[in-house]
Target: Glycoside hydrolase family 1 protein
Amino acid sequence: MTTTFNEGFLWGGATAANQFEGAYDQDGKGLSIQDLMPRGISAPPSEEPTPENLKLVGIDFYNRYAEDIALFAEMGFKTFRFSIAWSRIFPNGDDESPNEEGLAFYDRVLDELEKHGIEPLVTISHYETPLNLARTYNGWTDRRLIGFYERYSKVLFERYGHRVKYWLTFNEINAIIHAPLMAGGILTPKEELSKQELYQAIHHELVASARVTRMAHEMMPGSQVGCMILAMPTYPLTPDPQDVLEALHTEQGNYAFGDIHCRGQYPGYFLRTLREAGVELEITDQDREDLKNTVDFVSFSYYMSVCATADPAKNVKGEGNIMGGMPNPTLEASEWGWQIDPVGLRIVLNDYWDRWQKPLFIVENGLGAKDQLVEADGVKTVEDDYRIAYLDKHLVQVGEAIQDGVDVLGYTTWGCIDLVSASTAQMSKRYGFIYVDRNDDGTGSLERYRKKSFDWYKEVIATNGGSL
Ligand code: BG6
Model:
C-alpha cells in the first residue's frame, strides 16, 4: 500500500484533563472553572460543584490511566495529547509552591506512555483555569496571570522537561473571543465584558505564551513549542466582493493569533480592529520584546467550516463549534449541527502552511455522535461506520495536503476515548474509538469497549495511512 505520510508521522489521539480525568477534588486538586460548568458554555456557571456536572467524575482517567493508555498502545498510537490540570499542580493558581501529589500523577501517566513508546504532547492550559484565578483576578483580564502561568509552566518544565518534547501553550487561544469564561477564566458575563477588557486579556495570554516559549527553549533545548488555534475556514457565501471581504475579516479574527505567535508582532489589520473598537491596549516595551519569541510549530483543531456574508438579511448564525457561523448550503451536518467539510481541512493546511511556513500539527478532529452499544458474538461494541467515514475522508485530505507540499507533523483525533463534551457537557456526544459506559444522567459502569473504529484506526496507523 502506498502512503504519502512521512515516516515518523505522529498518529494518535487527544484529550483534556477536565473532560476525562474526573477526581476533581482528589489528592489536593483545587477547583477549576470547569467544576462549575455543568452545562458547558450553554448556561452560566453554578456557585458550587453540583453532582449533575459530569466532569467531576469524567471517565475516571485519573484512576484508570494505565488501562486506557494500554488501549491506545494497542491501536498503535505514536503520540497522545493530554492537558495538565493547572489546579492539580497549583490548587489556587496563585500558590507559592506546587502540590506534589498532582505532579506525581503526571509522572505516572508519563511512565505509562514511556512504557508503550508513546510520545507525549502536553497542553499546558486547556479551558481549565483554577477557579481562584477566575474569582480573585477575573482570569486573564489581570496581568498578574502571566506570572502565575509562568510559575506553573516552570514547574512543569523542571519536572517533565526531560521526557516531554512537544508542548502547547493554550488550547484554542482564539476561542476566548467567543467563550471568555471557558477560554480565559473571565467571570464577567460575555454580554457585559468590554472589548477593552477582552483584548487586554488576549494580550496577556499572548505575552504569557511567548514568555513560556522562551522559557521552554532555555530550559529544555530541543523542545518544540506550538500555539493552538481553533481553525474554522470561512468561505464567502457568494462571489460578491463584499462577501469575500467579510469572509477575509472573519478569517483575520483567527489569523491574528497565529500571526502574532509566528511573526512576533501585532499585524496591521488587527491594530485597525482595535483602533476602530476604541481599544487602547496596555503594551509595555518588555511585552513587545517578549512577543518576539515565536513558536516552533502551529497546531490547530479542525471540525468544520462556515460561510460569511455582508448582507445582514442573509446572515443567520448556525449551530456549531464555539465560534458558530453561517451554515454552508452545500454541506451536511452532524447531529449537533457541525457541518462536515473534509476538503476544508486541506484548505486550512495549505493556507496555514503558506502563511506561516511552520510545521503544522492537527491536534483535534473528529465526529461527535450518539453511539449505540451492541453485542455481537458475546462482545460489546459500537458499529460506528459514520465515524470511520468522517475520519477517513478527513485523512485523505491530509494526504492530499502533504502532496501539496505541506509539512504536517501529526494527527490526533479528538476524544480518542469517549469523554465529556466541552460545549454541552454531555457524555452522549461521543468522539472515541473506545466506548465508555457512562450516560448523561451520570449512570453507567465506566467500563471500556472497543468500537469498530478502533480496529480501523489501528490499521491506518499500522500502514502509516496506506489503508485510507
Ligand atoms: C474543541 C475543544 O473546541 O472541541 C475540546 O478544544 C472540545 O475541548 C472539542 O471537546 C469538541 O467540542 P465538544 O463541544 O463537542 O466537546
Remarks:
- The chain is about 40% helix and 15% strand.
